[in-house]
Amino acid sequence: MSNGDYRAVAGRIKQELAALEAVAARAGGAWAEATLSPDDYYVDAAALNLHGFYAGLERVFLIVAFAMWCAMSMPTSSTRGAWVSWSRASRQRSNDCAPN
Asked: Is the Cβ–Cβ distance between 35 and 23 less than 8 Å?
């Protein structure tokens, strides 16, 4: 991966982190209201926002994992089995990581 690729990944992560901050703030606000109100709607809102937060964390992890997958290099092992395995993975990476 080039420096530009890493910058793109960092930019995507920053966007996700900004969204995570907003979702966390909404969950906190809903929870604060839930403690003051007998209405269950605020608890539901807090739970849905917590789920959104979890989904956002998953997206960050997927961004990192995908970047690592695309940046993998050939193993140093000289055994044929490792080469065949790497060759298959390399072909899959070229399909997965090709620019759209």
From this structure: no
